[in-house]
Amino acid sequence: MIDITYALGVLAAMTVVTFGLRALPFLAARFLQSHPLVQRLGRFLPLAIMTLLLLHTLVGSAGQNPSGPWAELVAVVTTMGLQWWRRHALLSILAGTLLYVALRNVGFAS
Amino acid sequence: MISPSDPSPVPGIPRISVLSLSVPVAMGYVPLGMVFGFLFVQAGAPWWLALTASVFVYAGASQFMMVPMLAAGLPVASIALATLVVNLRHMFYGLSLLNKLPSQPGARWYLVFALTDETYSVLTTLPPGTRAGQMVTVALLNQGWWVLGTLLGAVIGAQAQIGLVGLDFALAALFAVLAVEQWRSAESSAPLWVAVASYGIALAVMPQQALLVAIALSVCAGLFWPKSTHEEAAP
């Protein structure tokens, strides 16, 4: 059994650290907003970070897939292609996810 | 569930509705939250402590990381340090949202608190001029899925098993859709290729901390990003 007081202490520390990291740029906002480097990052980072989150999720998912990364590749190419073509977020996500679930549960005999 | 009352896109202005952005997050957060709740209760904690973690800490990766550390009784300071390393990337999220978040203190600070990977990605995609209420709604919905999943996992425990492998791919699909949208609206696709290269380097050098290292490399590259030549023409 985990000691409740200790666990609450851990959770409080984690809450402070997590919120502190998320809040830091906003606390420094007055300085940051006018800074040209920050404006550069503001234009550069969204696409870069989104690409990284996608890559990281795919690599993690492919790592748990015993039959190789093919299901991930097929599903992500389908999702991105659909989104580029139709620009309908829910459609792209549902189609990509259903295709992936089908590939993992039906096909790909290893 | 796809609601028919989902607002349809305004012709000419591609618009992603708040609900359709939160549904894929739900498909990832509910099962993942269930796994967290289940593992946490298995480690010997009461269900309400799992719920407290998801309400107040609300950071998926570090919540998973904390379970074995808590069970092993590690010092609070070392768990706090590990949380700092795992969540360091969140610090960069605020940088690109500085001018986008509402100025009302309540809405602003809740959004800052709720700035997970998924909520960040959704917020960056909302069109300029999105009302504060809509931003808070999407963030609250997302945290609601996470808390709901945690509760289900903690209470139902062993009976809560997902029959289909791969439903959590919805999160990857969400990132893919948002990357395409960012790609289309970016002035250049260089950030994408920089990110791919950064991730490759990070995987080769520090696979355990690949995401953090790759973000740091991308930030360094972004600092040298040339000033836009269309600065004046930009809205």
From TrEMBL, chain A:
Sequence intervals crossing the membrane: 6-32, 44-64, 84-103
Is Membrane tagged as a keyword?
yes
Q: Which Pfam families match?
A: AzlD
Q: Give the source's domain of life in one word.
A: Bacteria
The record's keywords, sorted A to Z, are:
Membrane, Transmembrane, Transmembrane helix
User: Which InterPro entries does UniProt cross-reference here?
Assistant: Brnchd-chn_aa_trnsp_AzlD
The name of this protein is: Branched-chain amino acid transport
From TrEMBL, chain B:
Per the record's keyword annotation, is Transport included, yes or no? yes
Determine the domain of life of the protein's source. Bacteria
* UniProt keywords, alphabetically: Cell membrane, Membrane, Transmembrane, Transmembrane helix, Transport
Principal localisation = membrane
Q: Does the keyword Signal apply?
A: no
Q: Which family does it belong to?
A: Belongs to the AzlC family.
InterPro entries given for it?
Answer: Brnchd-chn_aa_trnsp_permease
Lipid bilayer topology: Multi-pass membrane protein
Localization (cell): Cell membrane
Q: Which residues cross the membrane?
A: 21-41, 74-95, 138-156, 162-180, 192-225
Pfam families, sorted: AzlC
Q: What is this protein called?
A: Inner membrane protein YgaZ
